[in-house]
Each structure stands twice: as C-alpha cells, then as structure tokens.
Design brief:
18 strands, 23 helices, 615 residues, alpha/beta, two-stranded parallel sheet, elongated, 16-stranded mixed sheet
C-alpha cells in the first residue's frame, strides 16, 4: 500500500519511520469527509502533533548552533585574509624602493599647487596612509612648497574651517627650507565699507612655532598650538592668513596675491625687507578697491625680483618697485590721466635698465600728434591691451609684439596703427600675438609678414573675418616666407556656443587645407578654450586630423582652461591648464593605426568644411 501513497503525503526519508501516514489518514487528506469516530488515526493525531512540535524545536536549536559555527568560520576567514594582506604588505615591492623614489612618486601624484584647506586632497591625503608614509610626507618639503590659499574648493564650494590660520601654519612649516610658491586669493563676503578705522590700526602680531605637526592639533581650537594672543584671534581671517604668510616670507620665490580689504593690505606692509628670495610677483586689487599707500614700500627691497605683473595698481602713488633689476613688467592699471600715464611710463623705462619685456597700462585717450613719442631701444617684447597704445611708442629693438584688444577708438584703423608702428620703429618683428583685435588688423599683414616666424591669433566674436582674411593672404605665393609656427586659439566665448564653434571650425579646416597645399613646414597648433576636458575631442574633426598627420603636416590640437600651475603662471604666458588632444584624436573610435587614411584620400576634400560628426 505504501507504494500507492502520493509523494506529497510522504515524509522525508529520515522521518518516514517516525511519521508514516496510514492509508485511511491519507484518504481523509484527499477528501473533505469528516473522520469517523472509531478511526484509529484520530486517536494518534494529537500524539503525532506533539512529537512533531518537539522535533521542530530540536531542529531550530540545531540551526542556531550551526549559524553560530558559520559566524565563527566567517570570522576566521576574515582574520586569515588579514594575515594574507599583512604578509602581502610586508612583501610589497614598494617597500623595496628607496625613500627618495617614494618621494618622487608622491610628487607625481600630488598636484603642482595644492589647496591648503582641502585636507582630503593633495599632500594631506598622504599623511593618512601609514606611519612611514606620514613621516615621509610631513618631512618632504617639496610637497608643501607650492600652496594655493583660497577658501573656495576645486568643486566650487566654500570652506568652513575653525582655524584656517593654524592649518596654513602647519602646511608652510612642513615645507621646511624649500622656496615657496604661493597663490593667495581668499574671498570675503564683508563689504569694504564695513571695515572701520579701528580695524585697520592693527596691533603687533606674532606667531609661535608649533612643535606638534599632528593634524588633529591643527584642526583643534589651538589652545596650546600656534597663534598666541587674543588680538590675533580678533583679526579678520584674511589678515590672519597674510600674517602667517609673512612669517615664512623670506622663503617666498613666487607670490600671486589678490586682495581687496584694507586690513589685509595693511598687513602686507610687513613684507618690506623680508623678500630675500622673491623672483616673481603678481599682485591684484579687486575691482573697485581703493588703497592709499599701504603697499608703497612692501616690495621695494627684493634683491632677486625679476618679474612683476600688476593689476589695478598705480606705480606712481601706491607701490615702489626695484625697477632697475626687473626684466618683465606687465602693468594693468586703473583709469589714469594722460599726464600721469606718460610720467609713469617714462619713469619705468628710464629706471628699468634691464627691462626687456614690458606691458604698459593703456592711456585714457588716443595719441595726440603734438606729443613726442616714447623711445626705448632696450625693449624686446612689447605687450599692449589696446592697439592704439602703439601710437605712443617707437621701439626699434622689439622682435615680439602682443596685442590684447578690449576697447575701441573711433576714427582709427588697427591695421594702419600697427603698420605705422612697424615703419616708425624700423624693427624686425619675428613674433606677433593677436587676441581680440578687430578685423582691420589684416591691413598690416603686408608690413609684417616677411619677417614673422611665429604668428598667434585668437578668434573672438569681435573679429569674425580675421581667419578667412588671414587664410587668403597666407596662401599667396611669397607671403610669410619664414613662418614656422601658426597658432589659432578659439576663445571661450565661441566654445560656449555650438553653432559658432562649428562655423569657425569650418574656417580652420579650410586654412589647414590651404596650408597643406602651400607649404608643409609650418607647425599648426589649434587651441580650444574650454572649461571641461572630458568632451573636448568632440569639437574636432577626427578623420581630418588623422589624415593630415599621416600626410606629414605638423599639426597639434590642444584644449586649455584656467590653470594653477606655476610653470605657466609665473612666466609671461596665459594662466592655463593644457591638454594635448593628439592621442585622444588618433585613438578615437579605436583607429590609431592610420590604416584607413589611404581610403580617405579618395574622398572629396570638399567635405572638410562640413560639420563633422564629432561636432
């Protein structure tokens, strides 16, 4: 009978001896009939239920015991894994590297200039790996010697630190004896009118050296570390930071400082006589800032100072510099009267016996023919923000000219002004950089093309015909015979708009084609000013780029954005981060072997002016 019992009514094999249903019981399960009173099964049902409940309790107890054993085994597995990890750590190849190589690795992974107050990035992060790495990072001054002092993070958020002065003190102290490169731009929401005269009269301030370099001590209230005296704590934050910076000012090599509040300017007076190693200075006032003579003598004693860039500062009334030793001076000034402008510029050129790279401020008005020209044979590189400034000068020694135009004067033509300057100076111009100049500058090309070796133009919305006009002139036989490098920059105002960018790209591609037909020795560099590098390759014609490279044309494509790298900012170039898109373009779509370029040659070159799929 057992073999006729349905499978669903059979207990598991290990329980069949203990729980076996008789046939009469199974038939009742298969129907809705009431059980008869004389059925033997009805008398055994309560007993079976009790036994099953006891067995369930026993099984649950066993399960609980097994789960405890599983947890123990899992804990054993985790502990054994830690043993393996510890063994791998001891046997790690990096342990076999000398400390100096590890420090070079640190330098490679840390940005050239780190944000002092982003303690989760930069050299700070290296102090939380292990004790050995912390010791190396804290004692390797090169990691801490290029500091960006700002209260705005790289992600655009504002820091809220309890004691930023102590954090800065720790960072600069860890730089050891290395020379410092500092970018100071600490923003404040407090209006300048909110500062009272009592705040400007700062008391003498001193700092005590912290003997404990522990980060926890830095981020604490600082009761036993660093700054002493309640007078310091009452100062505005930017003044506290400037004061800490002054403590280490004898090691300053590069200083880029942007200030606006009167108390901070007053603090900077203490720099006088403490800038023994300063080589590069870039100092700016925020728009609308007013100062008297707070900085007059701050930088007058800097025996190694060679390069100065000023923004919104007047040399005549607020700042004295060792002009006789400067080689580079770029002076962007507030509005200044014509007589003061002329006196200021003549004083600079008279005292600047070693000055070879000069960017004068722009005067208020165009040149008056009754005024004598300013003559200087020593200047080699000349930088002007408005092309009409050229009317004021005769510079026979220059070979490099930068024109960065942001204004307009009615009744004058930029090209005629440049041509007259070249003719008047009788100079041999080898490098010409044009940014934002009007299209009329094209009329000067016959005067400059024969000697030019390097030409750089920046396309903006103010010179819509410059590129096409340059293309037409450049491709004529005999024009630009010495040109070896042409750089075309597409400004940010164009890169922001897809349609405008595509239109200018068509002109660039046409120029590339004409250059290829006319000459192959010119190196062509195309630059895009763009804030996000992640999609920069989309603005380039990948197929066109690959084809030109394979044919032999020396062409490069770059993307640029604002930079924090001292290698670019301390010199005379633009403040930009740069990414070379060559590898990106050659590898686009996985076609980096150039295998398809021969087939591309059979395509009609007229499609080069069309908008690419990547645009």
């Amino acid at each position: 009978m057992a073999d006729t019992v349905p499978q669903e009514f059979l207990a598991p094999r290990r329980l069949q001896d203990k729980y076996t249903y008789p046939p009469s019981f199974i038939r009742l399960l298969q129907t809705n009939d009431p059980p008869p009173n004389d059925l033997d099964a009805t008398r055994t049902i309560p007993d079976m239920m009790v036994r099953a409940a006891d067995d369930i309790a026993l099984a649950e107890k066993e399960i609980k015991s097994l789960r405890a054993q599983i947890r123990e085994r899992k804990a054993d597995i985790w502990a054994l894994g830690r043993v393996i990890d510890d063994c791998n750590t001891v046997l790690s190849p990096i342990r076999k590297l000398p400390a100096d190589i590890i420090l070079e690795i640190f330098r490679a992974v840390v940005q050239e200039r780190y944000d002092v107050f982003e303690i989760t990035r930069g050299p700070w992060i290296l102090t939380h790996i292990c004790k050995w790495w912390r010791t190396l990072a804290c004692t390797y001054g090169a990691l801490w010697s290029s500091a960006n002092i700002t209260n705005v993070t790289s992600r655009g958020k504002t820091f809220s630190l309890q004691d930023p002065a102590m954090l800065l003190q720790t960072a600069l102290k860890r730089s050891g004896t290395f020379l410092l490169s500092v970018w100071f731009d600490y923003k404040t929401k407090k209006r300048r009118t909110a500062y009272q005269d009592s705040e400007i009269n700062l008391p003498p301030i001193e700092l005590s050296a912290s003997t404990d370099d522990d980060d926890e001590g830095v981020l604490s209230n600082g009761s036993s570390h660093g700054v002493i005296g309640q007078s310091f704590a009452k100062l505005p934050i930017e003044c506290q930071l400037v004061t800490v910076l002054i403590r280490h000012s004898r090691r300053l090599k590069h200083l880029n400082i942007n200030v606006s509040t009167p108390p901070a300017l007053k603090c900077l007076r203490a720099l006088n006589g403490r800038l023994d190693r300063l080589e590069t200075l870039h100092i700016s006032l925020r728009s609308g800032a007013r100062i008297r003579n707070e900085l007059q003598e701050s930088f007058s004693m800097a025996p190694m100072l060679r390069s100065v860039r000023l923004n919104e500062l007047s040399l005549a009334s607020t700042l004295h510099l060792p002009l006789s030793q400067l080689r580079f001076l770029n002076h962007q000034l507030q509005i200044i009267r014509a007589d003061v402008w002329r006196t200021t510029v003549q004083t600079i050129l008279l005292q600047g016996s070693h000055l070879t790279d000069y960017g004068p401020p722009s005067p208020q008005a165009p040149y008056n023919s009754e005024m004598p020209r300013i003559d200087n044979p020593l200047i080699r590189t000349f930088r002007v923000r408005d092309w009409y400034v050229l009317d004021y000068f005769r510079l026979p020694g220059i070979d490099e000219l930068h024109i960065r135009h942001f204004g307009w004067v009615d009744g004058q033509i930029a090209g005629d002004t440049l041509s007259a300057f070249i003719h008047r100076s009788r100079c041999t111009l080898r490098k010409l950089h044009l940014r934002g100049v009007p299209d009329s500058i094209l009329s000067a090309l016959p005067s400059v093309h024969k000697s030019l070796v390097d030409l750089e133009i920046t396309i903006t919305t103010s010179n819509t015909k410059l590129l096409s006009g340059l293309t037409a002139f450049m491709c004529e036989p005999g024009h630009f015979p010495r040109l070896s490098r042409l750089e075309i920059k597409v400004s940010n105002e164009i890169c922001l708009f897809h349609e405008s960018l595509s239109e200018y790209l068509k002109q660039i591609y046409a120029l590339v084609d004409d250059l290829w037909n006319a000459r192959t020795k010119v190196r062509l560099e195309v630059w895009f000013s763009i804030s996000d590098f992640s999609h920069t390759h989309r603005v380039c014609n990948v197929r066109k780029f690959r084809r030109l490279r394979n044919k032999g044309l020396d062409i490069a494509v770059f993307a640029a954005r604002k930079s924090k790298h001292w290698g670019l900012t301390v010199g005379h170039g633009e403040d930009e981060d740069v990414e070379d898109l060559c590898d990106v373009l050659l590898d686009e779509d996985g076609q980096d072997d150039g295998s398809d370029w021969e087939d591309d040659d059979f395509e009609d070159d007229d499609d080069l002016g069309e908008e690419s799929e990547e645009c």
